[in-house]
Amino acid sequence: MIYVIYMNIEQNYRIGLTTQITGIRPETLRAWERRYEVVKPIRTDAGDRLYTQADIDRLLLIKKLVDNGDAISAVANLNYENLEKRISSCKSALTSTGKNDLNFILLGRTILDKKSLDSMRLNMIDVVQDERNIKSNYHCKIDFIITEIPTVNQGTFKYLQKVLKQSKASKLLCAYDFGKEGDIAALTTQDIGTTNLPLNHSGITDWCSSNFPNYLKSTSTARLLTDQDLNNIVAAGSKINCECPRHLADLINKLTAFEKYSSECEVRNAKDAEIHQELEVTSAKSRYLIEEVLIKLAKIEGIKY
Questions:
Q1: Which candidate, 228, 220, 286, places its Cα nearest to that of 259?
Q2: 115 and 82, same structural domain?
Q3: Nearest 5°: phi and psi at 140?
Q4: Angle 296-226-8 from CA coordinates, rounded to 5°
């Protein structure tokens, strides 16, 4: 699922948007603020929290460390520089979600929720509305930048080159609403690609697969498709009179359920725990392979999800 949210020009983020970008649950973020003062958000007259870009950057680092096993109490009061050093000294913190995940910046108004980003194996490092707000240096390598523009014209290519240079990203994906075929074709280079607005899951992942050879090719068995993705694919499959998407989605749902059951099943001894762990791993691998096949089928059938 992809949400479209409009932000104010001051780049102050409300708590809902902050939790979507960082992946920190609202109740967890409030608890961290109350107990450890990890950040000190601005308060509106109505009492609503507003987070700055600096708060977002700090929370992203803290989330990586906590996910990697650090206690929140151990990292909550570290300054930004020390947080970066701690991550640098523990390389696995940057790869905890999969060694081939891609990091990107969004220059535009669309916000992809954390669950969708995880399923796409993407890390959204920053969201800006003005290219002048792109930072000169981030805590990790930026693989690509998504740039949203309403209309493609003859000056667009020069603008995109400027954005690409400023972001220091390897590549750029231009998402547009309108434009002449000739102008759009002129944008496509080794480093720049195009897709239509509104952004969609398959449009982004297809482009990433074509431009980053190792994308999605890892030993990870993390879910590639969210529940909403599956629903969208099944619905589109019905329109083209093909039952295969529904059958594959059913298999994925059953394997996901069994995967969860195996992880939660009560065990009686070490041998019992070992076999249930094997069941969980095997069902996860099977589900992952079927997800890959379903994604290929959706691409062949032109199904957007």
A1: 286
A2: no
A3: -150, 170
A4: 115
pLDDT by residue, tens only, the chain of 305 residues = 454 444 444 568 889 889 888 889 888 898 899 888 999 999 988 888 999 988 998 999 898 888 776 778 878 888 888 888 777 665 443 444 444 589 999 999 887 777 778 778 888 888 888 898 888 777 678 999 999 999 999 999 999 999 999 999 999 999 999 999 999 999 999 999 999 999 988 889 999 999 998 887 655 677 888 888 899 899 887 777 788 899 999 999 999 899 888 777 665 655 666 687 778 878 888 998 999 899 989 888 888 88
Which CATH number do you get for residue 36?
Answer: 1.10.1660.10
Task: Provide Rg for the chain, Cα atoms.
Answer: 21
Same domain, yes or no: 78 and 106 = no
Provide the number of structural domains found in the chain: 3
Report d(CA 194, CA 144) in Å as an integer: 13
User: What is the spatial distance between Cα 283 and Cα 55, in angstroms, rounded to a whole number?
Assistant: 39
Spatial separation of the C-alpha atoms in residues 301 and 305, rounded to whole Å = 12
Let me know if residue 222 belongs to a domain.
no
Question: How many residues are there in the chain?
Answer: 305
- Cα(188)–Cα(191) distance, integer angstroms: 8
Co-location of 135 and 85 in the same domain: no
Q: Give residue 153's region: left, alpha or beta (phi > 0; psi -120 to 50).
A: beta
Q: Is 236 exposed, middle or buried (0-12, 13-18, 19+ CB in 10 A)?
A: middle
- The boundaries of the domain holding residue 240 are 227-301
Nearest-angstrom CA–CA distance, 2 and 148? 15
pTM: 0.51
